[in-house]
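Archive entry: two folds, one per protein. Generate the first.
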Amino acid sequence: MPRMTSKTHTPRKRFGQNFLRDDGVIAAIANAIHPQPGEHLVEIGPGQGALTAAMISREIRLDVVELDRDLITSLLAAFSIYPGFKLHSADALSFDFAALALDGVPLRVVGNLPYNISTPLLFRLLEFAPLVQDMHFMLQLEVVNRLAASPGNKHWGRLGIMAQYHCAVEHLFDVPPEAFFPPPKVQSAIVRLTPYQRSPWPDCDVRGLRTIVQAAFAQRRKTLRNNLKGILDDTALAGLGVDPGCRAETLQLEDFIHMANYLGNN
């Protein structure tokens, strides 16, 4: 298994760096991903290459996207011997993941995502869902709870609704702070997102869904009547079987889809 050079790298707070160090956790993540020959993996934020080393082989393509330029030399030294390895010195928040899938092979996206940008990055990655086979991420446990939440749960909101519209969501296992250096002040977890090959809601107005969900959860304590003012009135909501006096967190995904389609058709 390849290793990074021993040069000391101080984790940078501005990049949200917490490097995974626990060999057991690394092996468990690699086993969950289980790369196969001929697959195309994309790793976001390889850091010091711990997970990279556990996944890489000569039989797969592996593109890594790393923002910290101080890590580039060591990553190249450790992994450039593999013909399918390619490093992109870039910010994942603006990176064009579609450019990696031009050969038609679906992407398998993985990463220990910086907690300070995880939510906007997840929303961006969902835009590329049709090009993706699956995604495995290390995230703050609270974010995984939001992704996997169900209606009526305090974690149910915009992130979970949009993720579950695009993907099947599985909370795989938790990871303690001591598995990292430096240890984060929060619990972490591994989540698997598997985009639907055939959408359960093929006729959904996706643009309308984004609009409705964002507005409905703009102020969680307010009712739909207040949050959707100027978008859908009481008559429209009642006609869809939705109580205007309820809060967004009580609604099912299908309720938001019905509202989105009504908005798109009127």
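Generate the second and append.
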Amino acid sequence: MDVAHYCLDGNADAVEFCPHYLFNHVLAAATYTLQEGVEPSRSGSISLFSVDIDRGLELFHCIETAGVFDIKWNRGGVDVHPLLALADADGCLRLHGLQCSSDASGAGGAMLTEIGGEKVSSSMCLCLDWNPLATSISVGLSDGSISLVTLREAQLQISQTWKAHEFEVWATSFDTHQPHLLYTGSDDCRFRCWDLRESPSNLAFQNTKTHKMGVCCIAKSPTDSNTLLTGSYDEFLRVWDVRSTSKPVNENSISLGGGVWRLKHHPHIPGLVLAACMHNGFAIARIGRENIEVVESYGKHESLAYGADWQADRLCTEGGGKRGSLVATCSFYDRLLRIWLPESQMVK
């Protein structure tokens, strides 16, 4: 069920709901727009929306930035302040705090304030991930490198950088159960894991044969410490058993009909995954013990499907009955942000 839509001011490539309880209604949407010419420039923006099934989308704050490739909120918790990290085309990692403000207009009641930034590389920052304790951030770069950036008292500092892949790194993901392990994926079709307990980091494993095209995204299951997902330009969502750190097993896979750019686990329902499928819209897949099935597809976008996220910790209700979690999706060239409610009974 469509709830609302909004046309952004640039090419939309990432959406992230704030996971912090008091700010679950806040949605961040990022853009990246290439201005061609004699001196090309890459501009971007971060827009904050208040999201509600009855009121729809209300834009309440926007900042202009360099072109943004990826955004991630830190994890919610007791006495943890909401922070939004940005990986941008200027090679910078920037950190913004979400501040309550009586001056902020609209229903949001908050605004972003930049509290730190670090020039990571002369190459572009393409992806990022927070470690579980939000004490460091991994950044994937367009030259194939990975940088680890530590966060202490709102100050960012590069702790190490190493050549992880031959081509662009599109995916970097900490193991939520073993935070000393970092998974990476690249245009070189390689899926790798790094042990961060030494500097430089050691290669714990690599898979060079399974993905037939570049690895776009990696998502460790939040409920099953043995399960990890990868998505690829080759259109396959793959399920991995990572109990053997030195040699993970590809247990299952399914073609989603488009390059699998983004994967998001449902915040409450184990085994339910939201996928952005580039040329084939968005899909919700259920991962069982023996098979994977697509339980719902969403094709209302008419451009590259890039950004996707679930709204955390809030269940929509209608007539006193639970209706499930809201979903935010965005598409690139048509600059469209959509909010919708899955119709599948498995999501309710």
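Annotation attached to the second fold: Residues 2-347 form a domain with the Methylamine Dehydrogenase; Chain H fold (CATH 2.130.10.10). Residues 317-321 have pLDDT under 50 and may be disordered.
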